[in-house]
Amino acid sequence: MILCCGEALIDMIPAPTEGGEGFVPHAGGAIFNTAIALGRLGQDVSMATGLSLDLFGQQLIDGLSASGVGTSMVVHSDRPTTLAFVKLVDGHARYQFYDEASAGRMLRYEDFASVPQDVKALFFGGISLACEPGADAYAALCEAEAAGRLVMMDPNIRPGFIQDEARYRARLSRMLACADIVKVSDEDLDWILPEHSGIEAQAAGMQAMGPKVVVVTRGKEGATAFLADGTQVSVPSERAEVVDTVGAGDTFNAGVLAKLSQMGLLSKLAAQGIAPAQMQEVLAHGAKVAAVTVSRAGANPPWAHEL
Fold first, then answer.
1. Is the peptide bond before 133 cis (omega within 30 degrees of 0)?
2. Residue 278 burial (CB count, 10 A)
3. pLDDT in tens, 109-123
């Protein structure tokens, strides 16, 4: 099983109305999107997050269940659901978040149930790594479970969410030290490692922080993986008629994890010794899955049969 650990929220998507423009609630969040995509790709997946007992929390539970995502690690409370109001500008999403004292943000590590024995990998990332106190709960979960299970991270740096940069960097460094695979954009690398110049030097700097494999995505330019032995593997992006890019990176992450699972590579040892040909297959699958998502509106990952 793959356990996706992080935010689930409601994206308020603009829609035309008779009076001008309104907003329609859609289930979302980076980690939620990855979990949904994994479920649709036929993977055994569950989610660890905090969800409200309100009507939006029920919408999120329904979305997880509909895509085959387990919810035994969900922490329920009567706090409100995080809302993210979305504005699309040239197909790219801009967000205004309402997250104060939410069910997801106010998580504590001790709220989580024990991680099931059959969990082989944990995935962390998104804004859940920045918004305290929940961010500290996820960091503690990562540190507690990383010794015996593969950990993949996508920091997806959002500077606007970081209230205390020193605390955020310290927490991120602790989690990177536990991680086996990290997926980052070139913008993420610039923020995390500003003292390094060039993607190769930045990737090497990140590997020195802990992860054996660093995957760098560059949008339409494709993705490059830097392996533990110093080998680089690159794949181009899949050609697609882009509607919008909402959820593209989240779905790419799901494609990578799904292919690793299918190839029997969801372990710390396997990540350290993954062969270039295997990594190329993994990246290509991630790109293929993401291409379907960008070809339709919103974070709507494909089902396995659509590939």
1. yes
2. 17
3. 999 999 999 999 999
